[in-house]
Amino acid sequence: MHTSASGPCPWGLRVLRAWPRLRCVQPVKMAAAAARGCWQRLVGSAAQARVAGRPSVLLLPVRRESAAADTRPTVRPRNDVAHKQLSAFGEYVAEILPKYVQQVQVSCFNELEICIHPDGVIPVLTFLRDHSNAQFKSLADLTAVDIPTRQNRFEIVYNLLSLRFNSRIRVKTYTDELTPIESSVSVYKAANWYEREIWDMFGVFFANHPDLRRILTDYGFEGHPFRKDFPLSGYVELRYDDEVKRVVAEPVELAQEFRKFDLNSPWEAFPAYRQPPESLKLEAGDKKPEAK
């Protein structure tokens, strides 16, 4: 039953259930109905349902966005003022530390990134922590990225937070498998376990770390799982041995029926790709069909 006092009911009233007793009427938004003068009509409908001795459901229209609005992506608007301020601060840091800062950029979401030389980890982090215009006292996160195509395949990322200025900054540096990076534990105590995790997962060595050892993998684990060249199945598998009454590590052994050799070519992912029947390989003993 659609109801309205003068025209359609206000948007936002969805479903009102009026039971035989008037006191059981449950409006979703009574204030909106009262503001539009619809409440008296709703009460009258409930009274009619009471006389009939059965519940009535009042269905009111709900405002819905158009289909085009549902498919629009959510885009974070760009703040030009914040973008200019971050660019100015990045140039300011580059002018003060020109020996270490190699690149300054601001991402599309107003996040400042400073790329530095590996030798400048301690000076740059100390400057950002102690300078009166920075005050990045908190190390929010420390992680690494493995990019095997680069000469220095590992990218170390420091995410810093300034509670005083409500600002964030990313400091990036680089290294390879053999070159160590100076530990930042002397600047941020929170970097202790972060650097242990990077050493465990990526194999990046941090010099002068107070306790650089594995933190996630088991004792005696070989390799670094987050490297792109690490096999997905790993090198060893664990199982409980009833004879020795303990967990033992053995080389990975996959049963033949679990191995998948049907590897698709990259161009087979395209819908227009169709393999011609002439290119199909014939099994031993099969004959090529004759053309009719």
From TrEMBL:
Location within or outside the cell: Mitochondrion
Gene3D superfamilies registered for this protein in UniProt: NADH:ubiquinone oxidoreductase, 30kDa subunit (3.30.460.80)
Record-level GO cellular component terms: membrane; mitochondrion
Keyword Nucleotidyltransferase: no
SUPFAM superfamilies, sorted: Nqo5-like
Function: Core subunit of the mitochondrial membrane respiratory chain NADH dehydrogenase (Complex I) which catalyzes electron transfer from NADH through the respiratory chain, using ubiquinone as an electron acceptor. Essential for the catalytic activity and assembly of complex I.
Subunit: Core subunit of respiratory chain NADH dehydrogenase (Complex I) which is composed of 45 different subunits. Interacts with NDUFAF3. Interacts with RAB5IF. Found in subcomplexes containing subunits NDUFS2, MT-ND1 and NDUFA13.
The name this protein goes by in its record: NADH dehydrogenase [ubiquinone] iron-sulfur protein 3, mitochondrial
